[in-house]
């Protein structure tokens, strides 16, 4: 039985390897259709100051704290709360907590923000995307389990990050990227191959050939937004010893995928409120 499970697991990793490799080599063709000469094309990210007002940020943080610590979202909202603290799937990000599908709790968010978000990406890409989900994320200080450089898959994958709290120094755990790495092919191929042969179950870890010395960390006041191509090698800064970091994460997809249900991490959803601090 164990031999059978080991064989199935190896086959699963091999299938993931080839699927990821196919996406990796297809992505440049998608990128060639996007608008050239923009920060999102050249560097893979763009920074917008004061994209959200302080009042908008504070409202979202209050909703997060109430949902997490006082009452769970009602089922009809389709919102759910994820804690990775006790997850057996990964050893990383044990102090990251997420309120997924936040738009179900605050429907006005779509009305007030979505056009602004989609227009920002349209200006950069020259293409239309759709919003898949709004997620509120809390990163507690952590110097032990922060995930190292990685990508969020190898296909068409964009996110908007909005700092909901001030991230003024490296100790606040800023979003950190390797500029222009969304256009890297061979370094990513090497990571894919090494992840496969070393038995790493996560095919999108960038454990090799990417170093802090070539990275850029985004510091800013609350309300600062980062338009990001998730094929960038990226991470939250690992020496997070300062303040709690609240972030709104907006997941975007190709426009033709509009209406698909967002279920990422639902298997890790908590079933009762929990105290965070």
From TrEMBL:
This is Phytanoyl-CoA dioxygenase. It comes from Sneathiella chinensis.
């Amino acid at each position: 039985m164990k031999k059978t499970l080991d064989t199935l697991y190896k086959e699963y990793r091999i299938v993931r390897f080839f699927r990821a490799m196919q996406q990796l080599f297809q992505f440049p063709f998608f990128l060639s259709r996007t608008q050239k000469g923009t920060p999102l094309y050249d560097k893979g990210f763009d920074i917008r100051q004061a994209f959200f007002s302080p009042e908008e940020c504070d409202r979202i943080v209050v909703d997060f704290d109430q949902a997490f610590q006082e009452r769970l979202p009602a089922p009809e909202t389709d919102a759910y709360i994820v804690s990775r603290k006790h997850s057996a799937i990964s050893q990383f990000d044990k102090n990251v907590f997420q309120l997924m599908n936040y738009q179900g709790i605050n429907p006005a968010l779509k009305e007030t923000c979505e056009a602004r978000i989609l227009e920002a990406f349209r200006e950069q890409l020259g293409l239309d995307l759709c919003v898949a989900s709004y997620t509120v994320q809390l990163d507690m200080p952590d110097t032990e389990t922060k995930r190292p450089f990685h990508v969020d898959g190898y296909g068409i994958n964009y996110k908007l990050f909005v700092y909901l709290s001030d991230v003024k120094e490296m100790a606040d755990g800023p979003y950190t990227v390797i500029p222009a790495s969304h256009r890297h092919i061979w370094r990513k191929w090497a990571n894919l191959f090494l992840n496969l042969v070393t038995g790493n179950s996560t095919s999108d870890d960038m454990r090799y050939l990417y170093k802090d010395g070539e990275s850029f960390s985004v510091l800013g006041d609350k309300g600062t937004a980062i338009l990001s191509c998730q094929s960038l090698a990226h991470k939250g800064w690992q020496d997070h010893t300062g303040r709690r970091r609240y972030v709104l994460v907006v997941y975007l997809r190709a426009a033709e995928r509009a209406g698909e249900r967002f279920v990422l991490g639902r298997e890790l959803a908590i079933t009762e409120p929990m105290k965070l601090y």
